[in-house]
Amino acid sequence: MISIRKRVLGLITGLLVVGLVVMSLLNLSDTHQEIDEIYDAQLAESSRLLEGLMRMPLAQDERKNLYTAFNLALSQAAPKIDGHPYESKMAFQVWSMSGELLVHTPSAPTLAAPPSGAGFATITTPKQHQWRAFVLNDETHGVRIWVGEREDVRADLVQRILRHTLWPNLLGSLILAAIVWFAIGWGLKPLAELASTLRARAPGSLEPLPQSPLPRELEPMQTALNQLLGRIGKVMERERRLIADAAHEMRTPLAVLRVHAQNLLEGGTELERRESLAFLISGVDRTSRLVNQLLTMARLEPGAQPTVEHSIDLVQTARETLAGLTPWLLAKGLELTFETCEPATMLPVNAVAIDIALNNLVTNAANFSPVGGLIQVRLVRLNETVSLSVEDQGPGIDAAEIERVFERFYSRDTAQGAGLGLAIVQAVAVLAGGRVTLANRTVGGLAAVLEIPLKPGPANAA
Asked: Distances from the Cα of 125 to the Cαs of 40, 128, 151, in angstroms?
């Protein structure tokens, strides 16, 4: 893409050229008009002077002698030696009313007949020269005066004025363009320095840009870059934390799997090998669950949640999730019920997040329920909040552990758990602007309650 400097310079230069052309045309028109006015005035004034000279009270013989002297003097004019080249382009003629030519300059055009009308007129001679003339009729003294000049005199003057005006304007425009070029470079210097600062940073550096004084136009850019660096830093921190958590949590299961594999290899009897193989399969399943829950936690980190495009029916979503868990629960010898008085409950949350949360709550309840136990799921709407509870018939939880169970990788001595289930549920609650609570039931067991507001609000997870 073309540089900012070239774009701005091209725009300014184009505007200058257009402005110069428009001003030159206006100047040309105005100059023509002013020159025509001045030269017409001079023609009229010259004719008045000739009229005054012709009115001199002279005798007939003296007047003839005056005409003869006029004609002789005018015929001896040498513009190239002691005059001006324009003399040959300016002329006058005087006729008597009877049509006799009395006085004329040698350069005067030959007319077929003396002009009859008075005032200004433009004529074209046989030599294709145009003359601007003024005719003055003096009826009292019986003379007709014609004073004219060739049109190319005026055109030449206009061209000289235009040249003397246009060339300085063009030269000035070029100088101005050069000044603008350097001025734009100076104006863009802070942007170049900012780019240089970014290029000089180390590849892994995510520190905010220093808050050095910048032009007002660049301050939003610096702020946006710092915000972007901050978001990238958070994403990379989440990745580092996920890798660290995975490395920490996978170390022990992999070591256990190695022990089971070693026992399988060294087993002396078929029963020992089968027992080691069962332990190995159980360890692989636990490791798979751990990996899946680690990935779930990564997806539910703040800023990484899926976009909510529309509201979902929480009742329908819960039914679909529980239907998928029913075969597994029946295989474990557990019974599952779902109770709700709401035909439909629309919430502006992500269906995948709700499915993950409910799945973890039911799985957690199943892990602590005795064989033949009952897991009850209830959905109740209270004012502006929807409550989704999962109740089991397990041993419950000590009051001292209620806060700790929401910590990542804290497990309550269960072989099936990885210590991430309730942490995932809490993350879902935070993203939905609700909260999750745990409480021991008076009849025995634990009740986990996920509360979600009907309208989006600030996170309020417990």
From this structure: 19, 5, 12
